[in-house]
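dumping these here so i dont lose them again. two proteins, back to back, each one seq then structure tokens. dont judge the mess
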Amino acid sequence: MGLSDPTLSGGAAGSAAQPMDTSSDGMGMTSTDDMGASAMDPSESMQTETDPPATTTEPAGDHCLAGITGYTEDGPFSFEAVTSGSVKMRVPVVPAGCKVPVVHLANGTGASCSSYLAVLEHLASHGFLAACYEDRNTGQGTQCITAIETARSEYPDLADDKIGSTGHSQGGGAAVVCIYRAEAQWGDSMIYAGHAMEPAHGYGDAPADYASLYAQIESPIFMFNGSSDTLVSARWVGEGFDALSSSVEAYWYQAQGADHIPIPTRWTEESTVAWFRWKLLGDTQACQYFKDMPNSSDWTLQDSQNETDCQ
């Protein structure tokens, strides 16, 4: 894959999903050749110094990212595009001394990191160190671990001991497997949260015993299916939810109107920021927002277990 990452240090990109070419695999996933937003209008993707951020900020609390709201909108931080080997990163420009969670996104079968550029940049604009390992088969979850290690190694003064894992389709299953692998590798030295968009559990390069791995996870997991998804059914997503331990905190929502392709970008942007702010930063406002999402026209609750209060 040719690398042509633009250095997007002036602000956050827009939230529209990026154009993709017509190549696809058996799951129907398509991909582009570059991580860069080749078809984006620069006037739409960059904030100028005179443009106020769309996200509201409040006085800082205990954490340097405290008080950020507006989960569907771009966050207040600019970011830089960085490539390290196979790992593509969007690195937020935050105040000195601020340590932030690392969030990895695993792409779907046959897709590339560029397919999820809008999501990665949305996360970075909200202060997360967003990473994506370039691989068209991510199901093993090992690429996620490598990307997290790379981000933490290259940005030791920025990366916190808080790990988020998300992904789409085969990558959705990989996001859950990654939480299993992260817990096994780092144990209680870190805090973890998993997020899976329309996960194709057990598909492609996924471990044959994925269900037994899911059952060993101890960290909170969120997953969603798309109501208009004709590739990964609600039943398929539910099989993964049911494979989780009965003792783990877990939520399964349905994204109303979401298809598999185009990628469910706007639902993902909203839910990743709210979920990771709650579970990795302990943001009670984000917790309440997340729990209220099924009361909107965009989401419905499919199932949940061991829900915790917003404290």
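---- next one ----
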Amino acid sequence: MQRIVSVLLLTIFLAYPVFAEPATQVDTDVSTQLVKGESGILMEASSGEVLYEWNPDKRLPIASVTKTMTMLLIMEALDSGKIHFEDMVTTSENAASMGGSQVFLEVGEQMSVEDMLKAIAVASGNDAAVAMAEHIAGTHETFVEKMNERAAELGCTNTHFINCNGLDETAEHYSSARDVALISRELLRHPKIFDYTTIWMDTLRGGQFGLSNTNKLIRFYKGANGLKTGSTSAAKYCLSATAERDGMQLIAVVLAAPSTAERFQSASALLDYGFANYEVVSSENLYLPLLPIAVRGGTEICVLPKLNDLSFIVKKGNRDKVETSINLPDMVSAPIREGEVLGEVTFTIDGQEVAKREICAATEITRIHPFAMYLRVLTKWLTL
């Protein structure tokens, strides 16, 4: 009897198809090691999707790649209006004392914020980084506190800074490939930074001091647009490399490569892998008919829905196969907060879900006063 039951169960099992979990569009389990170093990661900037990783959370010294955070705080200070490109920055004795990569600022020398930023982004000037830190925060130490606060806000769980330039690293100054990618991604939200990170050669001091970009990919890799190199005896050779092709912006981080050549080779291999295998889907690629939704009891009769973030990654060649399914109510009740989730949109390829995004309220709508509601109804009735 037991044998008969087993046969019947086997027959039923074979008669019905077995549905496996849908295959993800992104596969980070790559058999070939793309990174010649202790750690690395490849991230797509708009979505934050990780396309490849190798020991991405290992805490390591990052040398001058530290300046990605320094440049981020500079750009945020510029965008907030706290500082301006034409502001003159005075070099302190502390800033002028920095060794390593520098633009040889002298005590009391003044240079514009724009030129200081150029010195940091192109020549990796340790002295310029400290001068800007003091200009923004008053002291270098206060600026470093802000660096650590900002890292925590970005979700960097394996990062701690003790200076703004990566010089004289100790065991207390470290980051990880993932955290560097997160900081780099945030920096890329300030497109003005590309005006400086894409410079190959330039000058300061009215043409008297030459600059040459430490990131050789800017000249030799198609689409390269940043971001920051770094090397010390402790950190070995590090790089946060960014490049854009066909509307897809990638971030490749390599830490502790054994040589400068292998640093650039690894970053190139990561970027090549990303551009060869993936493409980004954005609002430019899809038509989403998000129509106004009726509002019950509100000061407005309808609310506009919006997508805060649409970008997601698909395997190359699949962008035109994406189908959408929008789930929104016919009516919602006031009050409605700006950004309140109203529904969602699901994206599928060949019936398999590849992404899902929330649809939110574009504006706030308060509850209407009963008397105002009475006037609205009366007006509508009188116009019939």
